[in-house]
Amino acid sequence: MVVGNPARAQRRHWTVRTALAAWVAIIGLCAGCESESTSPAGVVGVFGGVGLGPGDFSYPRAIAAEPGGCVFVVDKAGRVQRFNPEGQYETGWRMPLIESGKPIGLTVHPDGRIFIADTHYSRVMVYDRDGNLLTSFGKPGIGDGEFQLPTDVAVDAEGFLYVSEYYGNDRITKWSPDLQFVGAFGTEPVDGVPLRRPAAVVVDREQTLWVADACNHRLVHFTRDGEVLGRFGGFGSEPGRMRYPYGLCLTPRDELLVSEYEGNRLQWFSRDGRSLRVWGKPGRAPGELNAPWSVCCGANGRVYVLDSLNSRVQIFKP
C-alpha cells in the first residue's frame, strides 16, 4: 500500500537514488588512489536501490560476508543476492517458498556454506555460495528440533550451531555440526526478564554466545551450554542504551557491533558493555540510516550496514 502522493514519493526516491549514484561515481574515479575516497561520514560506497532487478532490493533484511570479501543479502522478495566487496552484483537465487513470509537471517559458515533462517517456514536452509540447495533442518513446533520463527544462526569453533527464534519459542537451540538437535536454552528469565525476540546471535573468539534481545533492547551473553553470563543495555538513545537491536556482528577486535532498527544507528560495545562509538543518524544521505536491520564486517576493515528502508547497503571504514 502506498501512503500519500505516489508520484511525489517516486520523484523523491529517484532524486535520492540519482544523487547517490552520482556520489558513488565520484568515488569510482578515485579507484586508483592509494586510499579509498570517503564521504565526511566515512562512507566509501553505496549500492542497491528499490527494485526487483539484479542488484536492487525490496526491503532487505539480512546481510553477511564471506572471509574472502563477497557479501550476501536477502530481501523481502525472498531473493538472496551475492555481491563482490565493492557492491557489484555477481549472482542470486530465490527461496523455494515465500507465500507465508520471507527470511530474516543469513550467516556464512566458516566452510563457505550459506545458512538462511527461513523464518516463516520454521526451518534453516543450507546453500552453497552459488545458490545450490544442500540441505535443511528444523520443522514447525515448540519441541526438540522444532522452530517457531527462526531469526539467525551462529557457529562456534567446534562447528556447533546456535539458532535464535521467537513468537512463543523465544529461545536459542543448539545443533551438532551434522545438524542434529542438541538442546535448547534461554527460556528462563535473565535478571527477571525473559528473552523477547532474540533477533541475532554471534559467537566470539572466547566462545561466548551473544544474543541481540531485540524487544528488551539489550545484549545477553551465554556460555555455549546456555549458562547466563550477563547482560547490558536497556531502552534509550544515549550511548550504552539501544532501540531494537536487530543486527549484531563481531569486529576484528572482537568488539560487538549492533545495528539499532529504531535507533537508526550503529553502536560499538566492548565485551564488558561499554559503549565505544556511535555512528549514523536518521536520513537518506550517505552516513544516514533508515531502519538498519543488519550489519556485518567484511574484508579490509570495511563495515557493511543494511540500510533497510532506504533499500541499500552502505560501506564504510570506522
CATH topology: Neuraminidase
Q: Calculate the mean pLDDT score and round it.
A: 90
Morphology call: globular
Radius of gyration: 19 Å
For the terminal residues, how far apart are their CA atoms? Answer: 37 Å
Q: Report the order of strands and helices.
A: HEEEEEEEEEEEEEEEEEEEEEEEEEE
- Share of residues in helices: under 10%
Number of helices: 1
Describe the overall structure.
This protein is mostly beta strands and 318 residues long. It has a single domain, classed as TolB, C-terminal domain (Neuraminidase). The protein is built from 1 helix and 26 strands. It has a 4-stranded antiparallel beta sheet. It has a 4-stranded antiparallel beta sheet with strand order 2-3-4-5, with no helix packed on it. Strand 6 and strand 7 form a beta hairpin. The chain is globular and about 50 Å long. The N terminus is likely disordered.
Q: How do the strands and helices of this protein lay out in sequence?
A:
Blueprint: H1 6-29, E1 43-48, E2 60-65, E3 71-75, E4 79-83, E5 89-94, E6 105-108, E7 114-118, E8 123-127, E9 133-137, E10 139-140, E11 146-147, E12 149-155, E13 161-166, E14 171-175, E15 181-185, E16 198-203, E17 209-213, E18 218-222, E19 228-233, E20 245-250, E21 256-260, E22 265-269, E23 275-279, E24 292-297, E25 303-307, E26 312-316
Parallel strand pairs: 10-11
Antiparallel strand pairs: 1-26, 2-3, 3-4, 4-5, 6-7, 7-8, 8-9, 12-13, 13-14, 14-15, 16-17, 17-18, 18-19, 20-21, 21-22, 22-23, 24-25, 25-26
